[in-house]
Amino acid sequence: MTGIYDDPWAYELACSFRDVEPEVDAVLAWCRRHGAGAPGSVLELAAGPAEHARAFARRGVAATALDLNPAMCAYARERAAREGVAVDVVRGDMTAFALGRRFDLVVTMLDSTSHLMTLDAFVAHLDRAAEHLAPGGLYVVEMSHPRDRLGDPSVGTAWTVERDGVRASVRWGGREDVLDPVTQIAPDRVVMTIESGAEPRTIRDVVPYRFWTATELAAAVRLSGRLEIAAQYGDFGDVPVTDAAAWRMISVLRQPSGAQPGIG
Protein backbone atom coordinates (compact mmCIF):
# COMPACT_ATOMS: atom_id res chain seq x y z
CA MET A 1 0.00 0.00 0.00
CA THR A 2 1.37 3.39 -0.96
CA GLY A 3 1.06 6.52 1.14
CA ILE A 4 -0.04 10.05 0.38
CA TYR A 5 3.43 11.14 -0.78
CA ASP A 6 3.59 8.22 -3.23
CA ASP A 7 0.48 9.56 -5.01
CA PRO A 8 1.53 13.04 -6.15
CA TRP A 9 -1.73 13.73 -7.98
CA ALA A 10 -3.73 13.04 -4.82
CA TYR A 11 -1.32 15.04 -2.67
CA GLU A 12 -1.56 18.05 -4.98
CA LEU A 13 -5.35 17.75 -4.92
CA ALA A 14 -5.35 17.62 -1.11
CA CYS A 15 -3.30 20.83 -0.98
CA SER A 16 -5.28 22.63 -3.67
CA PHE A 17 -7.01 24.79 -1.04
CA ARG A 18 -3.78 26.82 -1.01
CA ASP A 19 -3.72 29.96 -3.16
CA VAL A 20 -0.19 29.64 -4.52
CA GLU A 21 -0.08 32.70 -6.76
CA PRO A 22 -0.57 35.37 -4.04
CA GLU A 23 1.77 33.40 -1.77
CA VAL A 24 4.51 33.75 -4.37
CA ASP A 25 3.67 37.44 -4.76
CA ALA A 26 4.14 37.85 -1.00
CA VAL A 27 7.52 36.13 -1.07
CA LEU A 28 8.66 38.36 -3.93
CA ALA A 29 7.58 41.42 -1.92
CA TRP A 30 9.70 40.17 1.02
CA CYS A 31 12.67 39.80 -1.35
CA ARG A 32 12.35 43.48 -2.21
CA ARG A 33 11.91 44.43 1.45
CA HIS A 34 14.55 42.28 3.12
CA GLY A 35 16.91 41.13 0.36
CA ALA A 36 18.65 42.30 -2.76
CA GLY A 37 15.49 42.83 -4.78
CA ALA A 38 13.66 40.71 -7.32
CA PRO A 39 15.26 37.24 -7.48
CA GLY A 40 16.56 35.85 -10.75
CA SER A 41 16.66 32.28 -9.44
CA VAL A 42 14.82 30.23 -6.83
CA LEU A 43 15.29 26.82 -5.22
CA GLU A 44 12.26 25.14 -3.65
CA LEU A 45 13.20 22.47 -1.09
CA ALA A 46 11.00 19.48 -0.21
CA ALA A 47 9.04 20.72 -3.20
CA GLY A 48 6.65 17.84 -3.76
CA PRO A 49 4.68 18.72 -6.94
CA ALA A 50 6.72 21.96 -7.12
CA GLU A 51 3.68 24.20 -7.24
CA HIS A 52 5.55 27.21 -5.91
CA ALA A 53 8.55 26.59 -8.17
CA ARG A 54 6.20 26.47 -11.15
CA ALA A 55 4.56 29.72 -10.06
CA PHE A 56 7.96 31.40 -9.79
CA ALA A 57 8.86 30.07 -13.25
CA ARG A 58 5.69 31.59 -14.69
CA ARG A 59 7.03 34.94 -13.48
CA GLY A 60 10.31 34.45 -15.32
CA VAL A 61 12.37 33.31 -12.32
CA ALA A 62 14.78 30.46 -13.07
CA ALA A 63 13.30 27.72 -10.86
CA THR A 64 14.76 24.55 -9.39
CA ALA A 65 12.76 22.08 -7.29
CA LEU A 66 14.30 19.46 -4.98
CA ASP A 67 12.46 16.53 -3.41
CA LEU A 68 13.46 13.15 -2.00
CA ASN A 69 10.51 11.17 -3.36
CA PRO A 70 11.10 9.90 -6.94
CA ALA A 71 7.37 9.82 -7.69
CA MET A 72 7.06 13.47 -6.69
CA CYS A 73 10.04 14.40 -8.85
CA ALA A 74 8.57 12.64 -11.88
CA TYR A 75 5.20 14.28 -11.33
CA ALA A 76 6.76 17.74 -10.90
CA ARG A 77 8.62 17.33 -14.21
CA GLU A 78 5.45 16.22 -15.98
CA ARG A 79 3.38 19.08 -14.56
CA ALA A 80 5.99 21.69 -15.50
CA ALA A 81 6.24 20.28 -19.03
CA ARG A 82 2.45 20.24 -19.40
CA GLU A 83 2.27 23.88 -18.30
CA GLY A 84 5.14 24.87 -20.57
CA VAL A 85 7.31 26.27 -17.78
CA ALA A 86 10.98 25.50 -17.20
CA VAL A 87 11.65 23.89 -13.80
CA ASP A 88 14.83 21.96 -13.10
CA VAL A 89 13.71 19.07 -10.86
CA VAL A 90 16.37 17.38 -8.74
CA ARG A 91 16.02 14.40 -6.43
CA GLY A 92 17.78 15.05 -3.14
CA ASP A 93 17.63 15.12 0.64
CA MET A 94 16.85 18.54 2.15
CA THR A 95 19.62 17.98 4.73
CA ALA A 96 22.37 16.80 2.38
CA PHE A 97 22.17 18.36 -1.08
CA ALA A 98 24.96 19.98 -3.06
CA LEU A 99 23.88 21.46 -6.39
CA GLY A 100 27.06 23.36 -7.21
CA ARG A 101 25.31 26.67 -7.71
CA ARG A 102 23.72 29.46 -5.73
CA PHE A 103 20.25 30.97 -5.80
CA ASP A 104 18.85 34.40 -5.05
CA LEU A 105 16.00 32.79 -3.14
CA VAL A 106 15.46 29.46 -1.36
CA VAL A 107 12.02 28.47 -0.08
CA THR A 108 10.56 25.62 1.94
CA MET A 109 6.76 25.70 2.02
CA LEU A 110 3.78 23.88 3.59
CA ASP A 111 5.56 23.07 6.87
CA SER A 112 7.93 20.63 5.18
CA THR A 113 10.41 21.24 8.00
CA SER A 114 8.17 18.95 10.07
CA HIS A 115 10.02 16.12 8.29
CA LEU A 116 13.22 17.17 10.08
CA MET A 117 13.06 14.93 13.13
CA THR A 118 16.08 16.14 15.12
CA LEU A 119 17.87 19.39 15.90
CA ASP A 120 20.96 18.07 14.10
CA ALA A 121 18.86 17.51 10.98
CA PHE A 122 17.40 21.02 11.18
CA VAL A 123 20.85 22.59 11.56
CA ALA A 124 22.20 20.53 8.63
CA HIS A 125 19.23 21.70 6.57
CA LEU A 126 19.94 25.35 7.40
CA ASP A 127 23.62 24.87 6.57
CA ARG A 128 22.76 23.49 3.13
CA ALA A 129 20.26 26.27 2.43
CA ALA A 130 22.81 28.92 3.45
CA GLU A 131 25.52 27.39 1.25
CA HIS A 132 23.23 27.70 -1.77
CA LEU A 133 22.33 31.36 -1.24
CA ALA A 134 23.81 34.03 -3.44
CA PRO A 135 24.96 37.27 -1.76
CA GLY A 136 21.91 39.21 -0.66
CA GLY A 137 19.72 36.15 -1.06
CA LEU A 138 16.92 35.07 1.26
CA TYR A 139 15.69 31.78 2.65
CA VAL A 140 11.93 31.80 3.33
CA VAL A 141 10.66 28.91 5.44
CA GLU A 142 6.96 28.39 6.13
CA MET A 143 6.07 26.40 9.25
CA SER A 144 2.84 25.72 11.12
CA HIS A 145 2.04 28.15 13.89
CA PRO A 146 3.05 26.81 17.34
CA ARG A 147 -0.52 27.52 18.47
CA ASP A 148 -1.63 24.48 16.46
CA ARG A 149 0.09 22.14 18.93
CA LEU A 150 0.29 24.25 22.08
CA GLY A 151 -3.11 25.97 22.15
CA ASP A 152 -6.29 26.37 20.15
CA PRO A 153 -5.42 25.37 16.56
CA SER A 154 -5.47 28.17 14.01
CA VAL A 155 -6.04 25.76 11.10
CA GLY A 156 -8.39 22.82 10.69
CA THR A 157 -7.30 19.22 10.29
CA ALA A 158 -10.24 18.25 8.06
CA TRP A 159 -11.29 19.89 4.82
CA THR A 160 -12.92 19.28 1.44
CA VAL A 161 -11.60 20.31 -1.96
CA GLU A 162 -13.12 20.20 -5.44
CA ARG A 163 -11.20 20.52 -8.70
CA ASP A 164 -11.93 19.51 -12.29
CA GLY A 165 -15.00 17.53 -11.30
CA VAL A 166 -13.19 15.65 -8.55
CA ARG A 167 -14.19 16.00 -4.91
CA ALA A 168 -11.98 14.93 -2.03
CA SER A 169 -12.37 14.94 1.73
CA VAL A 170 -9.13 15.08 3.68
CA ARG A 171 -8.38 14.38 7.34
CA TRP A 172 -4.75 15.14 8.24
CA GLY A 173 -3.90 14.57 11.88
CA GLY A 174 -5.99 15.65 14.84
CA ARG A 175 -6.20 15.79 18.60
CA GLU A 176 -6.09 12.00 18.85
CA ASP A 177 -2.62 11.95 17.26
CA VAL A 178 -0.76 12.60 20.47
CA LEU A 179 2.53 14.47 20.43
CA ASP A 180 5.32 12.63 22.24
CA PRO A 181 6.45 15.07 24.96
CA VAL A 182 10.09 13.96 24.67
CA THR A 183 10.65 13.70 20.91
CA GLN A 184 7.89 16.21 19.93
CA ILE A 185 6.90 13.80 17.17
CA ALA A 186 3.30 12.80 16.48
CA PRO A 187 2.04 10.04 14.19
CA ASP A 188 -0.37 12.12 12.11
CA ARG A 189 -2.96 9.85 10.54
CA VAL A 190 -4.05 10.84 7.05
CA VAL A 191 -7.29 9.73 5.42
CA MET A 192 -8.25 11.04 1.99
CA THR A 193 -11.37 9.94 0.12
CA ILE A 194 -11.57 10.85 -3.56
CA GLU A 195 -14.84 10.88 -5.51
CA SER A 196 -14.87 11.38 -9.26
CA GLY A 197 -18.04 9.67 -10.45
CA ALA A 198 -16.62 6.19 -10.08
CA GLU A 199 -16.12 4.10 -6.94
CA PRO A 200 -14.64 6.33 -4.22
CA ARG A 201 -10.95 5.75 -3.54
CA THR A 202 -9.47 6.10 -0.08
CA ILE A 203 -5.83 6.69 0.80
CA ARG A 204 -4.72 5.97 4.36
CA ASP A 205 -1.32 6.85 5.74
CA VAL A 206 0.55 7.72 8.92
CA VAL A 207 2.93 10.66 8.52
CA PRO A 208 5.41 11.34 11.34
CA TYR A 209 5.23 15.03 12.23
CA ARG A 210 7.96 16.84 14.18
CA PHE A 211 6.69 19.91 16.01
CA TRP A 212 9.08 22.88 16.22
CA THR A 213 8.60 25.84 18.53
CA ALA A 214 9.64 29.40 17.69
CA THR A 215 12.46 29.23 20.24
CA GLU A 216 13.74 25.95 18.78
CA LEU A 217 13.78 27.51 15.33
CA ALA A 218 15.78 30.44 16.69
CA ALA A 219 18.17 28.02 18.42
CA ALA A 220 18.70 26.05 15.20
CA VAL A 221 19.47 29.29 13.34
CA ARG A 222 22.01 30.27 16.01
CA LEU A 223 23.62 26.81 16.05
CA SER A 224 24.05 26.91 12.28
CA GLY A 225 25.48 30.43 12.49
CA ARG A 226 25.14 30.94 8.74
CA LEU A 227 21.82 32.78 8.71
CA GLU A 228 19.89 35.27 10.79
CA ILE A 229 16.17 35.95 11.12
CA ALA A 230 15.37 39.14 9.23
CA ALA A 231 11.60 39.00 9.78
CA GLN A 232 8.77 36.71 10.78
CA TYR A 233 5.18 36.78 9.57
CA GLY A 234 1.98 35.09 10.66
CA ASP A 235 0.61 34.68 7.14
CA PHE A 236 1.43 35.65 3.58
CA GLY A 237 0.64 39.28 4.34
CA ASP A 238 2.06 41.53 7.00
CA VAL A 239 0.36 39.95 10.02
CA PRO A 240 2.95 39.59 12.83
CA VAL A 241 3.61 36.03 13.95
CA THR A 242 2.57 37.10 17.47
CA ASP A 243 -0.81 38.40 16.30
CA ALA A 244 -3.97 36.54 17.31
CA ALA A 245 -4.87 36.30 13.61
CA ALA A 246 -1.59 34.58 12.69
CA TRP A 247 -2.03 31.07 11.31
CA ARG A 248 1.51 30.31 10.08
CA MET A 249 5.06 30.96 11.27
CA ILE A 250 6.96 32.20 8.22
CA SER A 251 10.58 33.19 8.75
CA VAL A 252 12.65 35.25 6.35
CA LEU A 253 16.31 34.33 6.83
CA ARG A 254 19.39 35.96 5.34
CA GLN A 255 23.15 35.79 5.64
CA PRO A 256 24.53 37.84 8.55
CA SER A 257 26.15 41.11 7.57
CA GLY A 258 29.72 40.51 6.41
CA ALA A 259 29.24 36.74 6.02
CA GLN A 260 30.91 35.00 3.11
CA PRO A 261 28.59 32.88 0.93
CA GLY A 262 29.23 29.16 0.59
CA ILE A 263 30.31 27.45 -2.59
CA GLY A 264 27.10 25.40 -2.91
TrEMBL record:
<dbReference type="GO" id="GO:0032259">
    <property type="term" value="P:methylation"/>
</dbReference>
<keyword id="KW-0808">Transferase</keyword>
<dbReference type="GO" id="GO:0010420">
    <property type="term" value="F:polyprenyldihydroxybenzoate methyltransferase activity"/>
</dbReference>
<protein>
    <submittedName>
        <fullName>Methyltransferase domain-containing protein</fullName>
    </submittedName>
</protein>
<dbReference type="InterPro" id="IPR041698">
    <property type="entry name" value="Methyltransf_25"/>
</dbReference>
<keyword id="KW-0489">Methyltransferase</keyword>
<dbReference type="InterPro" id="IPR029063">
    <property type="entry name" value="SAM-dependent_MTases_sf"/>
</dbReference>
<dbReference type="Pfam" id="PF13649">
    <property type="entry name" value="Methyltransf_25"/>
</dbReference>
<feature type="domain" description="Methyltransferase">
    <location>
        <begin position="42"/>
        <end position="137"/>
    </location>
</feature>
